[in-house]
């Protein structure tokens, strides 16, 4: 076990060095050895990813090394356990981006041997083929609940990943970390991520995968405001489809809609419901969302109607406009 | 010498700019239309770059190259094409300097490394990058699985669009099918693509309309022939039904592969022909059989002494008939449909295989065939009618197709009594000399009889009398009768009784020229195929056949 931890430390140091100018000290032989270490590291990942005890030990080892390296190399980006599956690729990209790296990596890439471990041809082909076909599919009039093909596929793959991670019990923490990392690494364009998460929810709809669905919803609700942001990002149509599919989603969605409604205040002068907080929610938005739910057909239609009427009753059961948002919604929706 | 012409450079540069990142339908269509010619242009560029001694020289000689390669690297339609991708990367490797000597070369190196980064990974900070990073797989496996999934989605759509009646508004319109097939042009050799390619081809069969991109058909056909793509048998047959060009390509490819490898074919011609799927496809689709026959017929008439082509035609027909017999009787088309031009009375005797006729009846059967054929030739001799000549040719071609009967006649001649030899010799003569130019038939029959007499003496007397050895050699060297004598000789060697050692002894003395040995191997190939389809295996004969083959293969 100690040996394995030492090896992991080695690899992280290698990866760290490959991003600095100290890599100029590497010659062809060193580079080859570095890739050998990276390959070994990938094997470690595949062997221990479902072994909870060993993995946690490795994870804490990684944490320690990450901390230490961050102190010595300020530009160092910490490596998490899940990334170890792509160690060789990480090393390759570091060397390609590092101007101080010598030419051996280029030599290895450009070698004519087709079956060499450095051959990137099938990766490049699959990646661009995937890109090309997703775009082609989007151009035909096929709709997957309004999602683009790329989101659908990445969502399915995410669902599949979570299924396999969550199958052995006690792995919830690891799965949460995975999703957290994906969220964190997605920097700006979170709408794309929400689409992928929605697709993952759609793909995990059968009985064998329902635990994954629960898990994803739980994770979304645990992250402050995440579920609300997701709902706002997804189209009303998509939210309706998800609500039909999962009553858990439906309840959570209603809760979000209720929360949005509570942010609206009646502006007497304008005779309008206007947002009060910085949540960019409007009355029309709420109307659209409920309209879509109501148009979806039984049983969701009836359930939504009932829910709206219950909410109106709980808030005073008014029939006049301008006092209660639920009343006004019901009037607007002509229920 | 200019490696690339200025006109070409301008043309392709304009194309690259126009295509951009292939985000529009028209860009994908245009790229796929030009993919084949783009590959040859890239090949020229590569050759030009390979002659440069440094990157600086390359940039001076080919100033367009950086921008051009860069733009193409951002076009997924080009990059997804295996061959173009390799050419692009090789061009990039030519531009990389192991020891950069100036700023231009250093900049080029950095640019190349950035380009490689872009090709192998997604942009950092993007959702794509994040999902791949934590997928617990190598990027190669992730993208391979992603590709499989998008292919599955597309395949599902194509299959669904076939479900409705022709006039219902299919979800997947013809335009969509065309677009999808255009996107597949670059990907014909990608193994994950076979379900989609199969579904697209099936769609074209079911829906009748030709809405597949023509470059798609071409690429798929080529990929199949070069074995870089594997599709289900049914899909391949669909392709042949859809595109006569593809069918012709497959037939010609079979012919070329057979002609190019005599040694392997002598061992397993029938297996090779069956593996090509052409016999089975022919049994199910009359027009396929007719097309293939037309092609092989034309080849035969151009080089009519070519025993290899005859062997192929013979084996192809035999495999086709086997396939046909394997069908349900109610599904079978009448034989007349497959052999429209030939005298109907010839069909039954010739298309019944020797393996279906008891051995004792062979002589009578062959006499029957002979009398039918003789009446056809006598008709021709009687008048100046072109149609009569045509009838002789058709009858002769049917005999070539059913060459197993000619081989049977030759086998019987080995042990025949002189009084029974006449019809067999006639058949053999007609087979090798169908025309009666200058009334040569009687002359040729005499040669046949002479050869037969000498061969009998050669193989039945121990030790082989030198007189007969030299006569047979003489007959072989006279170009008029080589094939006929060789045909007889091979059958004698295989089917006569007597020690196996004389085969080698006689063959070494009589068949000395490489060309003659080569031809003999083809005769053996068709004998072997006929023996393979017999009900029982005669070990003695097989071992003689192998001995003769080994002797011929020794240089």
List keywords for this structure.
heterodimer, A: 335 residues, mainly alpha, two-stranded antiparallel sheet, 66% helix, 2% strand, elongated, B: 555 residues, 30 helices, 74% helix
Low-pLDDT stretches of chain A are none
- The largest beta-sheet of chain A arranges its strands as 1-2
Summing up helix and strand content along with how strands pair, one would put the structural category of chain A as mainly alpha
| Class derived from helix and strand content of chain B | mainly alpha
The chain pair with the largest interface is: A-B, 67 and 65 residues
Which percent range describes the beta-strand content of chain B?
under 5%
Residue ranges of chain B: pLDDT <50 for 5 or more in a row? none
Question: How would a textbook summarize the main sheet of chain A?
Answer: 2 strands, antiparallel
SSE string of chain B: HHHHHHHHHHHHHHHHHHHHHHHHHHHHHH
InterPro entries (chain A): FANCF (IPR035428), FANCF_C_sf (IPR038505)
Protein name (chain A): FA complementation group F
InterPro entries (chain B): FANCC (IPR000686)
Protein name (chain B): FA complementation group C
Notes on the protein architecture:
The complex is a heterodimer of chains A (335) and B (555). Chain A is mostly helical. In chain A, 66% of the residues lie in helices and 2% in strands. Chain A has helices at residues 2-17, 28-48, 52-72, 87-97, 104-109, 121-139, 149-166, 172-185, 190-203, 210-222, 226-233, 236-245, 247-262, 283-294, 300-314, 325-332; strands at residues 264-267, 272-275. Chain A has a two-stranded antiparallel ribbon with strand order 1-2. In chain A, strand 1 and strand 2 (272-275) form a beta hairpin. Chain A is elongated and about 80 Å long. With 555 residues, chain B is an all-alpha fold. Helix content of chain B is 74%, strand content 0%. In chain B, helix 1 runs antiparallel to helix 2, helix 2 crosses helix 6 (82-95) and helix 26 (466-477) crosses helix 27. The two termini of chain B are 45 Å apart. Classes of the chains: A mainly alpha (335), B mainly alpha (555). At the A-B interface, helix 4, helix 5, helix 6, helix 7 and helix 8 of A face helix 5, helix 6, helix 7, helix 8 and helix 9 of B. Chain A: Pfam families: FANCF. Chain A: InterPro entries: FANCF (IPR035428), FANCF_C_sf (IPR038505). Chain A: This is FA complementation group F. Chain B: It comes from Cirrhinus molitorella (mud carp).
